[in-house]
């Protein structure tokens, strides 16, 4: 009997690399086609909640990730206007005890490196960098993809095609007739600095906790990465700047202006990075993620605001559930993909909606901000943490 053709994955970001590893664990071959000549991540961090780390650990990545990750002791939420703490949510070992998997903060380069090493070691995964895809054609029993890889032209026959090509996905537009992403009217500024450089900043537990500051028209997040050697800073501001790139250098003067009325310690922190990169935040809401033997995963399907820190986690969940769905033998590939979409859509949509809710409550001012603060203080750390249960406690069925 002829061997089943590989699954073709377009894009080697978090979604594509995790999908390839999850498929390989089930014995499936894949070809991963990545546009970039070499994979390098922006100098920024990512929070990985237990729903995501559980999957990464199942894929065998704990030894590679743990030495580089930090499990912050707490999440400290502050009101910037009053410069005071609203809540301190215990994280650290307690999270692993409660959810069976850790809450880690890592540098994106470290996550990508761990995924990439595992992909390169796996003989079932054929990773091609520097790809220019010329054509993707769904057929009755699969897909064909024609691509230039450097100066070589390849014709690939696949069993299914996974579009993991991010927020500006061409797979979405070309094969599913989907729309381009929508700008959200918010920009994220990102920088990492050596933690030692932040020694003079008067923010308590700056290098051992995750900090979240809420303020008028902006919020700030900081946490340690690279085993605590570096500090990652993200400032999200309301504005109407639009650009498709991940790595545009921002003018620090613009950031200083947006945070003029913030506490001096925050302004001291924001003054430290030599370079800030900005990213116009976008969202994707597609009515369908599958068509025949084509499926979209990760940001290609449902890019969301990063205000519950879940876009990457949803990409990781998508990949794991998709690999399980494709391993079924009791139904056609088309039906397996449809079943996967039916399972994933309600959860990803609920998470995206929760991120939109945070987008409005985080940036409040005046009386509404006071009401928000009161609610947070009344709820207290335990109940605030409990509100994350449905996201962090997720486990793959079966
Ligand atoms: C400021 C900010 C903070 C965030 N913080 C968090 C967080 O703390 N936790 C969390 O879980 N998530 C977070 N996210 C979200 C997370 O970064 C994304 O959801 C995640 O990176 C999406 O991964 P992806 O693989 O779907 O897409 P991408 O990472 O965009 O990868 C897509 C890949 O496809 C490739 N590609 C594109 N087009 C083509 C093509 N035509 N042919 C071949 N290859 C192609 C690209 O080069 C890229 O390598 C944050 C996002 C932002 C903006």
SSE topology:
Layout lengths: L6 E4 L3 H12 L4 E4 L11 E4 L1 H9 L3 H4 L8 E6 L4 E7 L1 H8 L4 E4 H14 L3 E4 L2 E9 L2 E8 L2 E7 L1 E4 L6 H6 L6 E13 L15 E6 L2 E8 L4 E9 L9 E3 L1 H7 L5 H7 L5 E8 L6 E2 L2 E3 L2 H4 L8 H16 L6 H30 L3 H21 L2 H4 L6
Parallel strand pairs: 1-2, 1-11, 2-7, 4-13, 11-19
Antiparallel strand pairs: 3-6, 4-5, 8-9, 9-10, 12-15, 12-17, 13-14, 14-15, 16-17, 18-19
Helix pairs in contact: 1-5, 1-10, 2-10, 10-11
The structure holds flavin-adenine dinucleotide (FAD).
Flavin-adenine dinucleotide binds next to α1, β3, β8, β12 and β17.
Question: Any key phrases for this structure?
Answer:
alpha/beta, eight-stranded mixed sheet, six-stranded mixed sheet, 19 strands, 28% strand
């Amino acid at each position: 009997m002829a061997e089943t053709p590989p699954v073709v994955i377009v894009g080697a970001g978090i979604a594509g690399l995790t999908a390839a590893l999850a498929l390989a664990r089930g014995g499936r071959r894949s070809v991963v086609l990545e546009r970039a000549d070499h994979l390098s991540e922006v100098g920024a961090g990512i929070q990985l909640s237990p729903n995501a780390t559980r999957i990464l650990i199942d894929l065998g990545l704990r030894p590679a990730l743990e030495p580089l990750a930090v499990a912050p002791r707490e999440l400290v939420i502050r009101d910037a206007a009053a410069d005071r703490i609203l809540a301190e949510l215990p994280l650290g070992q307690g999270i692993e005890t409660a959810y069976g998997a850790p809450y880690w903060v890592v540098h994106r380069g470290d996550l990508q490196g761990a995924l990439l090493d595992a992909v390169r070691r796996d003989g079932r995964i054929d990773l091609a960098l520097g790809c220019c895809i010329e054509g993707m054609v769904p057929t009755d029993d699969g897909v064909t993809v024609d691509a230039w890889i450097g100066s070589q032209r390849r014709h690939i026959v696949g069993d299914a095609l996974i579009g993991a090509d991010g927020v500006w996905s061409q797979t979405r537009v070309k094969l599913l007739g989907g729309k381009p992403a929508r700008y959200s009217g918010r920009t994220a500024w990102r920088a990492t600095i050596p933690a030692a450089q932040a020694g003079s900043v008067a923010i308590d537990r700056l290098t051992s906790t995750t900090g979240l500051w809420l303020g008028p028209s902006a919020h700030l997040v900081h946490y340690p990465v690279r085993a605590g050697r570096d500090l990652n800073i993200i400032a999200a501001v309301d504005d109407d700047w639009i650009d498709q790139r991940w790595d545009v250098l921002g003018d620090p003067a613009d950031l200083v202006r947006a945070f003029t009325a913030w506490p001096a310690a925050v302004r001291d922190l924001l003054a430290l990075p030599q370079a800030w990169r900005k990213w116009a935040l976008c969202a994707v809401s597609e009515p369908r993620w599958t068509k025949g033997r084509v499926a979209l995963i990760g940001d290609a399907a449902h890019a969301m605001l990063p205000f519950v820190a879940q876009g990457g986690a949803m990409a990781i969940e998508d990949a794991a559930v998709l690999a399980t769905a494709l391993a079924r033998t009791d139904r056609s590939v088309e039906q397996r993909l449809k079943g996967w979409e039916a399972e994933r859509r309600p959860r990803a949509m609920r998470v995206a909606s929760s991120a939109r809710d945070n987008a409005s409550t985080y940036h409040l001012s005046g009386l509404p901000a006071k009401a928000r603060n009161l609610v947070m203080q009344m709820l207290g750390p335990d109940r605030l943490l409990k509100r994350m249960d449905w996201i962090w406690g997720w486990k793959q069925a079966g």
